[in-house]
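Minutes, project huddle
Topic: does the predicted pose make sense with FE2/S2 (inorganic) cluster bound?
PN asked that the exact inputs be recorded in the minutes so nobody has to dig through chat later. Recorded below.
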Amino acid sequence: MSNVKIGESLRRVEDLRFLTGHGRYIDDINLDGQARAVVVRSPYAHATINSIDTSSVADMDGVLLVVTRDDWQREGFKPMPTKSGVKNNKDGTPLSQPDRHALAIDRVRYVGEPVALVVAETLQQAQDAAEALDVDYDELDAVTDPVKALAPGAPQLWDDIPNNLCLDFELGDKDGTEKAFAEADHVVSLDVLNNRVTAVPIEPRGCIASYDASEDKYTLYNASQNVHANRDTFAEVLNIDPAKLDHIAPDVGGGFGAKNSGYPEPPLCLYAAKRLGRPVKWINSRSESFLSDTHGRGQSSRVELALKADGTFMGLRTTTIGGIGAYAWTVGPFTPTGGSARTQGGPYNFPAMYYSGKAVLTNTAPMDPYRGAGRPEATFQTERIVEYAARKLGFDPIELRRKNLMPKEMLPHKTPMGLDVDSGDFPKLFEMTMDMVAKADQAALKAKAEAAGKKYGFAIAPYLECTGGGPKEHAGVTFNKDGSVELAVGTSSTGMGHETSLAQILAAALGIEMGRVKFQQSDTTATPLGGGHGGSRGMEVGGNAVKQAADEIIELAKPIAARLLQSETEEVDFEDGTFKAGASSVSMNDVIEASQDADKLPEGMEPGCLNHSSVFERGIISIPNGVHAAAVAVDTDTGTVEFLGYWVMDDFGTIINPMLADGQVMGGVAQGIGQAFLEDIVYDPDTGQLVTGSLMDYGLPHADEIPNMEIGYYEGEPTKKNPLGVKGAGEAGCVGACPAVVNAVLDALKDDGVTHIDMPLTPQKVWKAIRDKGAHDPKALLGDAA
Amino acid sequence: MGFEGAMPEISLSINGAPVTGTVEGRTLLVEFIRETMKLTGTHTGCDTSQCGACTVHLDGKAVKSCTMLAVQADGAEVTTIEGLAPEGEMNPMQQAFNDHHGLQCGFCTPGMVMRAMALVADNPDPTEAEVRHGLEGNICRCTGYQNIVAAVLDGAKALRG
Ligand code: FES
Ligand code: FES
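Predicted holo structure (tokens), as shared on screen:
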């Protein structure tokens, strides 16, 4: 009999250790004889490095080693390559990829760029030496805004990359879209900023590297979301065989994309560990994290919508200029190009679409995926122009959306952006959301807002998502004699609860007790391959790998069951943890036990014969979708916004564990609300210094700034793209949130003439927009650059 | 640096056990707890006293242990997350966090639970708004707070008995 089922809100098995202080995060690990490393970071946004004088610290207390560009060049270490999904410009030439070394070689190109690694006996000694290291710079002009970086006369980051343009991309039918615009009754156009933000996992990044000379082998403990891909990158940099590098992530305190990249610090520590013959530990401080973690979003876009007189959408055209930092990071160039193109247009029926995106190098921290990486941007661009059009042209925003949603009969459908939308029912989710909202009684909410002297606003935001990340995943199952079942996967939970949800899939499929499953992840020695975390792939790719392994184990087990049942393998059926042949039956538990006992096994089978590994490969990415809605009260005297309600309906296909899915949605929405109202990475445009370099300057949402959400799931349209029918849940929350809340605020201000405010909607900006009576230049960002 | 050479000895109780240790003048309480006492449940998430991951109880009050020196805890009673329940068990607040999925990555969690315990000690029957306000000094990046708030309300109820 099966103990657990898919779809059950099982409590998490990992919670006990986290709740009692027994989690094991990177900073909780200390290795015998370890030294401490501190990174010397560039204080300038752009400067030539004249010299680095290591003699300035060589005699300081405890200093063991200073790694500089000289070491890197002498050793012939390689740059870290970009793995951008889009590799070519629209003219077919390859993207411009500057060499990204772990240490700056000739020039520094952003504040915080690693210039040296100082290793000492203690952290304090390393910090003191890092401060004292004498580096001589000649400062150069810097540019931090991607639109300005493209303009003639802008400071050039790389001698061989004209106009700082890394990648020039297009997708869709340009001519067809132009024709749609020419034939349209209405055309609206608006410049939309997707403000630059950063993930801020509460655990900062860190690693411990060690080297075993006797076996010429490295071990790296690292707060990474993606140990296999990172291992390959670090091995490539250091010119070593990946098999000589064991890469293990312990418990990781959040990631959201910021722990996905191939960062410079781990290869620096690996090299230092080899040089010193002792482990080297490095932990980033929070302030350094703001300087050196990857940032996300940061796109300036012109969005144009063509409509018929009756409001029918005819075409959508988006032109984006996105900063990617000073280098092409792991997948940085992809986000403002292919990553933001795919879900343009959302779940609406657009006969024609065209997207053009430029990935631009600027003197700023690296840009790489942040939860959603392109889909939040696309959704925001689409939903803002729809809302703006409704306001400008006098359509009801709810009706305008309802009218243009793809009807269910249209699916499966390939969008003009090439997205394969196989399943879903967008109108149904829209109405289900409106039903949820209706129960909350909008008239009462409005009355409540007005009674408090505030203005009421409401908006609904349908979204279309797609998954991403590594298409392959490995699941290995080992049955131990003590009854425990080891499950090793190459996915990476940094809080999403895979220790529970993946074990749940295995236990449900095999019909064994959850408590028997011992979970292992994020360890290159435990699984030969793995895609880590990213692109909402955990259940979609990882979950299906587990399911596939379980299904194959059931087949492997049938001959054993047949022998126990004195029947033939072909006559054995399996259901709910039980093998049956005719009237007799035997449990999976008994078959597992028999599989360890040579006497009970059919001829040719060995004890341990059920131990099995499987690799699942995703064919086509899945399409999660759903609808967010928000109700707000705006205080027009202060510009502050209060939530009166927040509703979400999601189609994630099959839900493995609704409680965990809720957690993903809630956390994602909170990050979206954070971006919409508080969070903002700001660089000084003249000096390139990071203005928002600590939690004092960068506003993260607190408990009293996030509303309760009512969340529902529609499971009536599971995808056929994978056996479990799951579509992915990890990123959708922050895809739908920004447009829902921003449009709700703008709805509240419609009588004040306010039609647009760029995120974050701080009280000051909201207040100013009201005072300015909505005066706003719709070409404010791109001017004539589009 | 001004404390160089001075290595004061401190005596305090941690999780009910008397502890004596030599610290540098500049040693933070969180460093003493994590590095000297090897109690790694107390976390460091920032360097500006904002995140609350380092929250412990000092003489029954919630404090951010990154914000005080170890010498300032001389003579005090300190409780960390490890001290809330016997090994392998959870107290009603910890149990409520488990029941309500009030944690994801778990990094903010010890600080949240310590803050929540202090909050309900002061106000055994808080409203939702009071809980949200009371958690202002602690940041969670994973959960969106909704389930933390539900957990604290439920934990408070369980602790009221
Ligand atoms: S570590 Fe962030 S407040 Fe103490
Ligand atoms: S659970 Fe990850 S920060 Fe709160």
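Observations noted during the meeting:
- Chain A touches chain B through 57 residues (CB under 8 Å).
- Chain A has three domains: 31-68+103-140+202-254+259-292, 295-468+620-771, 470-616.
No decisions taken; revisit at the next huddle.
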